[in-house]
Structure formats: C-alpha cells, structure tokens
Amino acid sequence: MEKFVKGNVIMKKLLSVSLLLSLIGCASINIPNYIRDKNPYKKSFYTHFVRAREAVMKTFEETGWTVESESEPALFERERDLKSGLKQTLIFSDVRQTSFFIGTRYSKLNVYVHEIADNETEIEIRYLILTNVVFKNFYSYKNDRAVDRIFKKIEEDLSS
Question: How many domains does the chain have?
C-alpha cells in the first residue's frame, strides 16, 4: 500500500510539473516586416535621394541595425504613387531582441526614403517595439530617443 501512495504522489508531482512547463513553454512571436504608419517620425533634408539613402544605410550600420531588405513602398501602401517619377524606397531592419528577467523585447525599424523635389528628400522612420511578458504582448510604435539619435547621425553624415 505504501508503494502505491508514493507512486501516486510522484505521479501527481510529475503531472503538475509537466502542466506548468506546457503553460510556460515557448511561444512563437510574429513580428511583421512592414510597420504601419501609426506614429511615424518625419524629417526633410535638402539633399538628393541617393545621398539620403546612403546616409540611412550608413547610419543603420553605425547604430547596430541590420538591413533585412529593401522594397518599393507602393507594394505596401496604396497612396505611395509610382507614376510621379520621384524616387522612393522602403528599408526594413532586422529584428533586435533584448531579453530581461520576465520577458523579451523585440524592436524593428522601417525607413521610408522619398524624394520630394530635385534636391529635397524626406525620411520617415517607423519604430515598432513588441514586449512579451509571460502571457501578454505589448506593442508600442514610439521610441523618441532612438529615433532622435538616428536622425542626428543622418544629419551628421549629410553635413560632412
């Protein structure tokens, strides 16, 4: 009888541990490649499109971001007109992952570079932060300090 009781207690412990592990287990986080313009940061620069794009790419490299891909903005947004003849591109960053005690933070950038006039280019930065804490995801489209640093680096590169 004593063996049966011990076996029953061990079985209950194993069952509760496996149940706990299944609840805590790995969750798949889906971070979109395209970030909608929920809180875009925009700044105009008096420079040619090619020079502005090069400055963005250089800034990505200097600040530790990796370019995942580059695309035509009209593929993602209807209002981005291809017929105007003005140059434009949408640059996607790779996902940055930061782990902390009770969760993980994922960050991603989209940079929309488009020519406004012959010698004027607008750069729009979209920032997404997904914070995963235990069973809850929190989304934020703001990171003023990081975006200000990126714009400052772009300005420095364009002024040199």
Answer: 1
